[in-house]
UniProtKB/TrEMBL annotation:
The lineage of its organism: Eukaryota, Fungi, Dikarya, Ascomycota, Saccharomycotina. The keyword Cell membrane does not apply. Component of the TIM23 complex. CDD domains: HAD_FCP1-like (cd07521). It comes from Tetrapisispora phaffii (strain ATCC 24235 / CBS 4417 / NBRC 1672 / NRRL Y-8282 / UCD 70-5) (Yeast). Residues 72-81 have a biased composition (Basic and acidic residues). Pfam families: NIF. The gene is TPHA0I02000. This is Mitochondrial import inner membrane translocase subunit TIM50. One of its GO terms (cellular component) is TIM23 mitochondrial import inner membrane translocase complex. Residues 82-92 have a biased composition (Polar residues). Keywords: Membrane, Mitochondrion, Mitochondrion inner membrane, Protein transport, Transit peptide, Translocation, Transmembrane, Transmembrane helix, Transport. It is a single-pass membrane protein.
Length: 478
C-alpha cells in the first residue's frame, strides 16, 4: 500500500510538473507566429514601396536639368560596398562601367542622325556612279577627247576624275571666258592695252586705331592716267574683291574718261593657292598687252608681258612720271609685239632708268649727225634748193616732238573733260526736279514713253544752250 501511495504521488507530481511545460511551449509558438506576421507585413510594405512609381519620371527629371547620375551615385556606391567581396573576387581589375543616361529626345535624334548618315552615303555613292557614265552630247569637247566611252573600271574612273576636276575648275576660273568685250574698230582702237594694278601702285590703304581705314592716292596718278589714255586702252585690274575696290576705282575716274574697264579679284584664276591675273582671258592680242604690277604671283602666267615695280608705301615720289616716257615710246612706235622690247632690258624693274640712258645716247648721236649735215656743203645746198633750212634750233629729237604733241593733246583732252563735267553737273541740276508723284500715277497724268523721250530731248537741248551761254560768258571774262 505504501508502494501504491508512492506511485500515485509520483504520478501526480509528474502530471503537475508537465503542465507548465505545455504552457511554455504554447507561449513560444505564439511569439514565433507574431514575429513571422510582422515579417510578412514588412515584406508586403517593401514590395508595395517598390511597386509604387513616382509622378516625376527620369525623362522629365533629365529635361529639367537634374543630374540623375549623381542622384544614383549613392545607390551604386552602396551596392558596390555590399557586393565588394563578390566584385573583387570576380573582376578586381576592370571598374564598373556606367551606362550613359539618354532621354527620349536624344534617342530620336540619334536615330534620325543614323538615317541621315545612311542617306548621305547612299546619295554620294549614287552621284559617284552617275559621274562615271558615258559622255553626254552637251559636255565639252576637251573632256570627250581626253577619255573614251566604255564601262571598264579604268575608263569609268577616268571619266569620274575628269568630271570632278571640271567641277572644281568652275570655281577656280573667272566667271566669263572673255573678261572684256571685243575691241572697237581700228579708227577708235588704241594700239596697246595697259593693265594696271590698283593696290600699292596707284593707291595705298592703311589702318590705324584713331582713323580706321584710310586710302592715299599716289602723286601724279591723274596725270599718269590722263596722259597715257590717249595711247593705251587702260584696264584697272585690282588685287582685291569688288566690294572693297569698286568705290576707290570710281573715285579715280568718276566719268570713265581715262580707264576703259575695271576688273577685280573675282576675275582672277585661282590656282595653287594664289589668285593669278591671266591676260589670256582679256580677249585681246597678248602681243599688244602690258601689265604693271608689284606682285610676281599676279602675272606668273605671262611674265614676259610684265613690268615689275616696287610696292608703294604711301610716301610721296615721282615713280609714275618716270614710267611715262617709255610707255609713250612703246605706244608711238607701232610695235607688233611688246615682249621682245621688254626682254631687251637687263632688269625690267629698272626700265625707266635704262630707257633714259638709251635715249641720251640716241639723242647725242642724233645731234652729232645734225652737226655733220650742217658742215656738209652738198647736203646744205640740196636743202636750200628744196626750200628747207637745216639748223640746230629747228631740228628736234623725234621723241621730244612726240612728247610735245602728246602734251598738246593732253591739254585739249582735259579741257573737253572739264567741259563734260560741267555739262553733267548742269544736267543733274536741271533734271533733279523732274519727278512723278503717286497722284500722277493714280490720275493717269504720266506721259507715254514717246512723250517722255520727246520731253527729254527738248530738255537736253535747253541744257546745251544754257551750257554754251555760260561758256561764252566765261570766255568773255577771261
Amino acid at each position: 500500500m505504501l508502494s501504491t501511495i508512492i506511485r500515485t504521488t509520483r504520478a501526480s507530481t509528474l502530471v503537475h510538473a508537465s503542465r507548465p511545460l505545455v504552457l511554455r511551449s504554447s507561449s513560444i509558438f505564439g511569439t514565433r507566429s507574431l514575429m513571422y506576421s510582422h515579417r510578412l507585413l514588412a515584406e508586403e510594405k517593401d514590395s508595395k514601396s517598390k511597386d509604387a512609381k513616382s509622378i516625376l519620371t527620369d525623362d522629365m527629371l533629365f529635361k529639367a536639368g537634374v543630374d540623375l547620375d549623381a542622384k544614383d551615385a549613392g545607390k551604386e556606391s552602396k551596392e558596390e560596398t555590399t557586393s565588394a567581396g563578390e566584385t573583387a573576387s570576380s573582376d578586381p581589375v576592370s571598374p564598373k562601367k556606367k551606362k550613359k543616361r539618354q532621354s527620349s529626345t536624344d534617342i530620336k535624334r540619334e536615330k534620325y542622325a543614323n538615317w541621315m548618315y545612311i542617306f548621305s552615303f547612299s546619295s554620294l555613292t549614287g552621284l559617284g556612279l552617275y559621274m562615271t557614265r558615258d559622255w553626254d552630247a552637251d559636255e565639252p569637247k576637251e573632256l570627250k577627247e581626253s577619255v573614251e566611252n566604255g564601262y571598264t573600271i579604268g575608263l569609268m574612273y577616268q571619266r569620274f576624275k575628269a568630271r570632278l576636276n571640271s567641277t572644281f575648275s568652275y570655281f577656280q576660273d573667272p566667271p566669263f571666258p572673255d573678261l572684256l568685250p571685243p575691241p572697237p574698230p581700228p579708227p577708235y582702237q588704241r594700239p596697246l592695252t595697259l593693265v594696271l594694278t590698283l593696290e600699292d601702285f596707284l593707291v595705298h590703304s592703311e589702318w590705324d586705331q584713331k582713323h580706321g581705314w584710310r586710302t592715299a592716292k599716289r602723286p601724279g596718278t591723274d596725270y599718269f592716267l590722263g596722259y597715257l589714255s590717249q595711247y593705251y586702252e587702260i584696264v584697272l585690274f585690282s588685287s582685291n574683291y569688288m566690294m572693297y575696290s569698286e568705290k576707290i576705282a570710281e573715285k579715280l575716274d568718276p566719268i570713265h574718261a581715262f580707264v576703259s574697264y575695271n576688273l577685280y579679284k573675282e576675275h582672277c584664276v585661282y590656282k595653287e593657292g594664289t589668285h593669278i591675273k591671266d591676260l589670256s582671258k582679256l580677249n585681246r592680242d597678248l602681243d599688244k598687252v602690258l601689265i604693271i604690277d608689284c606682285d610676281p604671283n599676279n602675272y606668273k602666267f605671262q611674265p614676259e608681258n610684265a613690268i615689275p615695280v616696287k610696292p608703294w608705301n604711301g610716301q610721296a615720289d615721282d615713280e609714275l612720271l618716270k614710267l611715262i616716257p617709255f610707255l609713250e615710246y612703246l605706244a608711238t612706235q607701232q610695235v607688233s609685239d611688246v615682249k621682245p622690247i621688254l626682254n631687251s632690258f637687263h632688269d625690267k624693274s629698272h626700265i625707266p632708268v635704262e630707257f633714259n640712258e638709251r635715249v641720251d645716247k640716241l639723242k647725242t648721236k642724233f645731234y652729232n649727225d645734225q652737226k655733220n649735215k650742217q658742215n656738209n656743203w652738198l647736203l646744205k645746198a640740196l636743202s636750200v634748193s628744196m626750200g628747207n633750212t637745216v639748223s640746230g634750233n629747228s631740228t628736234k629729237f623725234p621723241l621730244d616732238m612726240i612728247r610735245e604733241e602728246g602734251e598738246k593733246n593732253y591739254v585739249r583732252f582735259m579741257k573737253l573733260i572739264e567741259e563734260e563735267k560741267e555739262k553733267m553737273k548742269l544736267q543733274q541740276e536741271q533734271l533733279s526736279g523732274q519727278t512723278f508723284t503717286l497722284k500722277d500715277y493714280v490720275e493717269g497724268n504720266i506721259p507715254t514713253p514717246e512723250e517722255q523721250m520727246q520731253l527729254q530731248m527738248e530738255k537736253q537741248k535747253e541744257i546745251e544752250e544754257m551750257f554754251e551761254t555760260r561758256k561764252k560768258e566765261n570766255n568773255q571774262k577771261v
